[in-house]
Amino acid sequence: LQELFAQDRAGHVAKLLKPSLSKGKIVVSDRYFFSSFAYGSLDCELKWLFEINKSFPAPDLTFILKVRPEICLARIKQRGKEIQLFEEEEKLHKVSETYTKLAEMFPNVYLIDGEADVKQVFETIRQIVDNVISPL
Description:
single chain; mainly alpha; two-stranded parallel ribbon; 2 strands
């Protein structure tokens, strides 16, 4: 499954990401290889996941919204959505732990309190973006 995700990512990088970046565009993505690392680590070694994703460009800036698994599941149910393959509380705890580990391992990865008020989450992200972009 992780190899299929990597193949899909390769197509996305080749067809959309690299051409957009080469035109000087800013690319914003709601999922990228950090998701594969976090969710893939449920069944695979992180080292192997890093290996199959090593050819992809690293993001300049990543935000990980930290939300307790029970809150995540409640939000999904509130939206009237079905629980998906990875959306079980025990799995989400491990995924959350891996995201925290990734934030320690990679530069420019920020953990944001996703349980805070929406306006506060926005302001926190905006301040980080302003600090990163303004020196440019």
